[in-house]
Amino acid sequence: MGPLSAALLIGGLLALMWVLELFDQSTGGWLDQYGIHARELDGLPEIFSAPLLHAGFDHLIGNSVPFAVFGFIIALGGFARWLGSTLISVVVSGLTAWLLTPANTIVLGASGLIMGWLTYLIARGAFDRRPIQIIIGVAVLLLYGGMIWGVLPTEAGVSWQAHLGGAIGGVIAARWLHGRAARPTR
């Protein structure tokens, strides 16, 4: 995927998240019901809507830059790999949040996906072994590696469960999409 297509894809998704949050704020949080309802079977489908929703503008602002940076870098590698890494990260993050978050809790936000993209970019170089992927992984680790602490239960109101699931999902995606079996042998 070229830079313009990658920018349009990620920019469009980011714009959608902002429009949804504007609507959510204007309706008193009506969209929050589409977040993940922890440990409720009927809350499982919300695994796919929760990453687009946020608990206020501060939450969305905090997620916007890493969403744009990581999403753009991954999209440059092609739509199929972007989609694969995104879906795996969203599903593993969402299921982990659904299972480990206390009941009667709603989980919202793109941070589980962002954590998945972070670990995907770092792990991709290890599995792919191409110098450019290793360099990107090291650069992402140096610039954003501190985010990895988000997998620990350190801050009230922050879903470490979604972060942990996203981190695991990103590594799974990197292995699946860039492991030796994913490359044709010569």
User: Which range does the strand content fall in?
Assistant: under 5%
Tell me the name of the CATH class.
Answer: Mainly Alpha
What's the β-strand tally?
2
What's the tally of helices? 6
pLDDT < 50 runs, ≥5 residues: none
Fraction of helical residues: 55-70%
Largest sheet properties: 2 strands, antiparallel
Describe this structure in words.
By secondary structure, the chain is mainly alpha-helical. It has a single domain, classed as Rhomboid-like (Rhomboid-like fold, Up-down Bundle). The chain is 62% helix and 2% strand. It contains six helices and two strands; from the N terminus they run αβααβααα. It has helices spanning 3-26, 57-75, 79-100, 111-128, 131-144, 160-178; strands at residues 36-37, 106-107. It has a two-stranded antiparallel sheet with strand order 1-2. Helix 1 runs antiparallel to helix 2 (57-75), helix 3 crosses helix 4 (111-128) and helix 4 (111-128) runs antiparallel to helix 5. The radius of gyration is 16 Å and the shape is globular.
